[in-house]
Design goal:
Blueprint lengths: L16 H19 L6 H17 L6 H25 L22 H19 L4 H20 L6 H10 L1 H10 L4 H24 L1 H7 L4 H5 L3 H22 L4 H20 L5 H28 L2
Helix pairs in contact: 2-3, 2-7, 2-8, 2-13, 3-4, 3-5, 5-6, 5-7, 6-8, 7-8, 8-11, 8-13, 11-12, 12-13
């Protein structure tokens, strides 16, 4: 030690208490953002696209601005709350899944009590938003909240939780029509059904990423049930979803532009089939992400239909 030069010594002063406090709160905010998946907006978009379809159809291309803002913000809040409760429910499973082991609750960076409080904040925001709507829509929101909160537990016993997720993700569609028009017409239920199918499609691709880990820990998923028929069943569901949306267009007497949006969605579906052809986890995840463009394509078709049709 006597021969150690000054250049070998660490002369960096220790961080001040203020600096430590700043870092602690910065890390905590980062963990709260991550557990709510606010840093990964793909889930928000997948939940939001059917809501936007419904808003533009129910409002005949001119949705009420107040209702538009409430549903967009409410979608973000409810999706974030759903992610928090999902990670809370899976906190003893996620550490054994490669893709999820570093999540804030699974890695014990965020305590369960902190997550519960964050969940209550997000639910409170969603409640404050929905209370601005009519009583019938508020009653429907209770069902939507129950669906979102109960979904993580369905993975314990229900063999096809992706379809249950579809119900939860699509419940905003009839809510939109109730808020915008005071009724839920047939086209709303057709879009609702299409949303269920779509969620089953992309969440099965998502489940294909974790299939091996899910088999080990006993979590249920459609990817496990479908087995080696997964690509065929996903393809069948893709065709069924497009046909369902086509029926919705027929019900609304939509024509060329709307149908072109569906053609665009079909092209993206074909690309997804190519991506999952070898069932590689990263390729399946890429196919899942590509569903954002399916929703966008349908929405563009709706916009163009109203813009260029008499």
């Amino acid at each position: 030690m006597a021969n150690q030069s000054l250049t070998d010594l660490d002369l960096t002063p220790p961080p001040s208490s203020a600096r430590l406090t700043y870092l602690r709160y910065t890390h905590r905010i980062r963990d709260l953002i991550e557990v709510a998946r606010l840093h990964r907006p793909i889930g928000i978009w997948l939940l939001l696209w059917p809501v936007l379809w419904a808003l533009w159809i129910a409002g005949a291309s001119h949705p009420t601005p107040r209702i538009l803002v409430i549903f967009v913000l409410g979608t973000v809040a409810m999706r974030s709350a759903g992610c928090v409760i999902n990670d809370l429910a899976d906190r003893d499973f996620d550490p054994f899944v490669k893709r999820t082991r570093d999540r804030p609750i699974a890695s014990r960076r965020l305590a369960p009590l902190e997550a519960v409080l964050w969940f209550l904040v997000l639910i409170g925001i969603a409640l404050a938003l929905v209370l601005q709507l009519d009583y019938a829509t508020v009653r429907m929101s209770v069902i939507g909240a129950a669906l979102a909160v109960s979904y993580p537990f369905f993975k314990r016993f229900f063999p096809l939780p992706q379809f249950y997720l579809g119900v939860a993700f699509s419940w905003g569609v009839p809510m939109v029509f109730m808020a915008e028009t005071g009724a839920i017409p047939r086209v709303a239920w057709i879009i609702f059904f299409a949303g269920i199918i779509w969620a089953a499609i992309y969440d099965t691709m998502y489940a294909m990423v974790d299939r091996d880990d899910d088999l080990k820990i006993g979590v249920k998923s459609s990817a496990i049930v479908f087995g080696d028929m997964d690509k065929l069943i996903i393809g069948t569901l893709q065709v069924l979803m497009l046909y369902t949306l086509y029926l919705a267009g027929q019900s609304m007497e939509y024509g060329y532009w709307y149908n072109m949006g569906l053609v665009g969605a079909g092209v993206f579906f074909a690309y997804q089939q190519w991506r999952i052809r070898e069932r590689r986890p990263q390729s399946c995840f890429d196919a899942f992400l590509n569903n954002h463009y399916v929703g966008l394509s349908v929405f563009i078709g709706i916009l163009l239909q109203y813009a260029f049709s008499p």
